[in-house]
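The aim of this short unit is practical: by the end, you should be able to scan a pair of folded records and say something sensible about each. We start with the first protein, listed as its amino acid sequence and then its structure tokens.
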Amino acid sequence: MMNDPTTKVLIVGGGAAGWLAAGIIAAGHRSSLQVTLVESQDVPTIGVGEGTWPTMRETLRRIGVSEKSFLKECDASFKQGTKFVGWQNGDHDEFYYHPFSLPQGFLDVNSVPYWQEHMPGFSFAAAMSPQQQICEHTLAPKQAATPDFAAVVNYGYHLDAAKFGLFLRDHCVRKLGVTHVSDHVESANQDEHGYITSVCTKLNGALTADLFIDCTGGAGLLIDKQLGQPMRARRETLFNDRALAVQVPYQRVDQPIASATVSTALRAGWVWDIALPTRRGVGYVYSSSHSSDEQADSELRNYLQRGKASCEADKCEFRKLRFEPGHRDSFWYKNCVAVGMSAGFIEPLEASALALVELSIAMIRDDMPANREVMDIVARRFNERFQYRWDRIIDFLKLHYVLSKRRDTAYWKDHQSSETIPDRLRELLALWRHRAPARLDFYQTEEIFPAASYQYVLYGMGFRTHFNEAADEYASLARKHLEENARQTEKMLHGLPTNRELLAQITDG
């Protein structure tokens, strides 16, 4: 058995996570693996995670999807980053951007000292990237003649998660040869060494495989219920554990489609506001230790009323979600890998959920164990990589809270308490008081959030670095890059269509 080749992969659970897993693995191992997905129609998907990273473009391209079909079938739009409102001091007029494009000249020179000293009237994102201005004008990241998945400026997507899962299912079954079993998994069988040999379904009996991927969400049907791998709670650092979600129609059919996720800080959490072609997806993520459900309900209604939502705010029906912030101690155990919410979940502040699915499945695809003999080696490598990645995500999300000057509620005060700040983040903040975040601060070639992302949040939130005189020698080069950014910004403001215009051209053409 140890030398028997891996030929069958069984994915338990559907939705966006399950079908992304099926598509990525099937496209990467067309001739050598039989990929099956079993999902129960009795188990609804969460279906509210509507933001992706730019990595999704390459993922869709590699599995053979047409961008035009994807945009049309998934009610998708272009996302160029996140706009953070009210995070510094609670003022609704105060904001900063974390765009998807690198700062101008980032790989060539550190321009932070020059910006900080000579451009006091420009926000960091506006000085370093055209995307703040592009987003403020609700412009698209490319033109109609730009090929599928190519970009003028970097972009990801906003999408309808439920439609995305169905779109992927159709593509995987029709184009990639994935076997789809609609059935309810009731239990699993293990051999004498603890490896899963099959899952038992209600209608189709036992389904066997060599590798099992658990995409059953918070239920953790295989990784938890069968194999007993515990979650590691992270509530000591990130407090949010509740969400209210609602779909909001546009006031007009030609209303502009926002180019970024808008994240607005409130008294005990924050609101996401995501623009799709036909509606907005809005939700309030909050801490049950700092707010009652009734208070959260009232805050979200006030937000909708302030934004003049076309639905009457006092009559909106909110979907209530609960989650425990944390992740597995072991994501891959024996011959089972947890992916998506079965691996863990924390607040969706920087839309890392689908990106983690992409990264997890890409590593499984590229490091697919040839047989049982090397399974434990691959599992150890996978667990080390993703423990590191989850820690870095938590560091980065905590950064948004630590830098805030808000002290208006216990929620914000507790977030800035030293015992809630991870040691590594505390050390980096001490370093960054004397130099800007740099690539040497992060060790992996595929960092979840690179140094550029830390720069956008740090300096967007008003952080100040006290540079030494040596930084002056790069001032001339930095000035040239920032002048080039200004030229590019002006050119793009005049040359790019709006999101709505481009989406109409692509999906109606």
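Turning to the second protein, read its sequence before its tokens, just as you did above.
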Amino acid sequence: MHRPELLVLDEPTSGLDPLMQLEFARLLRECSDGGDTVFLSSHELEEVQRVVDRVGIIRDGVLVVTDSVEGLRARSARTVRFEFAQPVDPAVFAVLDGVTVTRSEPHRVELAVNGAPAEVLRAALRFDPVDVVATPANLEQLFLGFYRSPPGSPSASAPTSPDRVDG
């Protein structure tokens, strides 16, 4: 193929085996590193997360956010799961700012944590956790967050200047 400055690709890896998907990602990176622009539309969000520098999310024909995957993650809740040797009351965590208890069992607590985790960690240390796992939001969770929120709410639209996209 010739070397266009702009590539517009719609579901380009549909039907490709994993080895060809890796080769395709390498070619995209080569184009991007060479200064070319690539617009990639895909429902394969795991793949998008691996190959793009910036993400745009369109809702109802409006570009509601553009940012890097890491930038979106920094503004989103991370999941933090604790396991304890003894039962722990999840209310200990529910009262903390920026924390939502998403699941609890006598010895386990799963939280959605917005912001710095210092207060959550201090609260957990009082109960001697035996395990902790912190996971940033993945692109699918971020995407669904924009679609689950009512239109016009801060989490559903965060553009600096709304752009209308028709088509």
